[in-house]
Write a structure and sequence with these properties.
The structure is a single chain. The protein has 7 helices and 8 strands; from the N terminus they run H-E-E-E-H-E-H-E-H-E-H-E-H-E-H. The model is unreliable at 1-19 (pLDDT under 50). The protein has helices at residues 2-13, 69-74, 95-108, 123-134, 154-157, 175-188, 214-221, and strands at 21-24, 32-35, 45-51, 82-86, 111-121, 141-145, 162-167, 194-199. Helix 3 (95-108) packs across helix 4 (123-134). The radius of gyration is 18 Å and the shape is globular. It is an alpha/beta fold.
Length: 226
């Protein structure tokens, strides 16, 4: 009886982190996880979209929880907004389909249009910068980790606050891929709000730790579209 009381006490004292996490399948081209704070009922919420890397592609949506924002949440991180994490079946991320996803969330939930954030890792970093480059007017800021982007998007990317990060020991996607995009952005707009952080000793895997640190979220959520 005493043990049963302790179990109930723990359950009520520490509610599951994923109490609001659910999948949405068949409503947009990308199936996705979504986590909606209780405050969404009364207050407009920021939206954070996480785009995963190639290793999480497929048709088992549970794979998306293996690293990144959802993994950080699973380990106890509280995100002050609506978190959306789609799954890509194969190939590269399609910015039009990411926009479709964002518009679905904005139509069906109480969101703040001035606070829309995108972050991604590896292939998801390319997807983040491609989406931000094509639809810069739809988002507020972006973080791209250990990936790269299209230099043709540079001038539109230059209109957004960007934080691009890459490990100097990444032999899967070379750091030069990120630097190439940053250089193109700076060439288009020398005073562009782009930060390029080189992570000493960072390889293609251990930079995932960035999703478990405050800095990424603190930087994103302080950005507000004017």
């Amino acid at each position: 009886m005493k043990f049963r009381f302790l179990v109930l006490l723990v359950l009520f004292t520490f509610p599951p982190v994923f109490a609001q996490l659910k999948t949405v399948i068949g409503q947009t081209d990308y199936p996705f996880w979504i986590n909606v704070p209780e405050a969404e009922k009364n207050e407009k919420q920021p939206v954070l979209i996480f785009l995963h890397g190639r290793s999480l592609s497929g048709t088992d949506i549970n794979r998306v929880k293996r690293y990144g924002v959802l993994r950080a949440m699973e380990r106890g991180r509280k995100i002050p907004g609506i978190v959306v994490a789609p799954q890509l079946a194969s190939g590269p991320w399609n910015p039009d389909k990411v926009l479709q996803l964002l518009e679905y969330v904005q139509k069906n939930y109480n969101t703040d249009l001035a606070r829309v954030y995108v972050c991604g890792m590896s292939l998801g970093s390319y997807g983040t910068l491609h989406f931000a480059g094509k639809y810069a007017d739809k988002i507020t800021a972006a973080v791209a980790i250990c990936g790269g982007g299209n230099v043709n998007d540079a001038c539109k990317l230059a209109t957004l606050p960007l934080w691009i990060q890459h490990g100097n020991k990444d032999f899967i996607v070379r750091m030069s891929e990120s630097k190439k995009v940053v250089d193109a952005i700076k060439k288009c707009k020398p005073d562009a709000d782009v930060t390029f952080t080189i992570i000493p000793g960072g390889n293609h895997s251990n930079v995932e730790q960035l999703f478990h640190e405050n800095a990424l979220y603190d930087w994103l959520f302080k950005q507000v579209k004017k």
